[in-house]
């Protein structure tokens, strides 16, 4: 059976929606699987030998995965001939607020600017990342062996230093595992400033369709993803 | 027959006599060993520091739901093993063990700005650095000099809060012996080279601090604390844990007795101040009634049963019957964060569900 393979499979949490929209807006053939960040955070999304990914105890998500497999010509979601844009493993909204509960700051300038803050050393932050994202990093490493994968950092929407710090630390850990990681923030503002409101959804913590299109455009320009000939 | 002559001992209670107070009572019958000088508010905050025995006090306070003050907790939801590896929850802030009065003084001077934060040494270790004041506070060296300096500054902010915002500062005196930098006089937490750093006989000198120096250092440290918090009460104890080793030249048993006797004498004399008290944990563990039963076979570590007896006497003598001073209940910050996270989750879920419905 001949299958028209997509240019890219977008896989991840709610941040992947804007990426998939961006791909479509730029005329790319896209398949996607969006799963709630909560499921990823809780470690309920696991690698699966046959399907690529599987979600235990979630029939609706399982149905989605099986349907996607079907559209991929029976392939696993993770195969060498379907590039993946991944936006999981971060889920910062589930980690950073708790880390910050007692006033810990990971960024030196934030600690120095707030006389009530506590400082968390680099190795402590790494230990925290390992505790809460170690499983995701392991999944990402194995995933990277199965499919050409590019991890995309979540949108940099806040001035909250810990949020950006954790995103970059997780990204560094992914890179240290040999995975390709793309940080869209630098294309929007090389100085590292947060995104302007026009790129965000009304809730203010997700990129909108225009943001997704801009990100995908940057990635196409850099050759990080391609349209099939 | 003439009436029995009255002496100053005639009307003393049984606890004043060795036979009735100790020999007949036995280890578990000792009573009235300590009664706090102060009626403290019901919500009094207690900060705890000192040598390794001091960590038992914080644990017991937490277990008894007494208000142990910890201005440097681990980040929220840090797994217990990770928090332990980074020395959270041992003392009120992450000073590590404070064995000597000289260490307490330098930490206090740093905390009140009497000494520059970067004055005490950092020791290179591989590609990173160790803080000479608390060389093993983290399991690996700090990544760079800035990381090490900010971590020190963070702990000292919290250390300052632990005497600025507490009612009682509990300090367990541990050792008279320590090491200093020959030129600067900076005291070290540990002899350089034993666990971290490198020993240099030209730079690192042994000190066996004597009574006058220990007393002066403690008095200066407490004066600096009281300049920040004039109502602060100080509760002193002496660790019953013997020296692991002595560099004094004496036998370690003799050196231990000198060390503990000196500290006990300083503590007792300082406790003449109405705002300083002494709690006899040392006597409870080392006293004759125990026949050393509260030590592990190494005759050094204190067994849990001993700690329990010590803390039993502590809580029996503590008086926190005063009216609370902090009024309204503390808001549950963790519950607030959970609510915010749940609200954000909902946004994410809805975005995903919306798209799911399109398929």
From TrEMBL, chain A:
Official protein name in the record: Uncharacterized protein
From TrEMBL, chain B:
Domain GSCFA stretches: 46-314
Protein name (Swiss-Prot/TrEMBL): GSCFA domain-containing protein
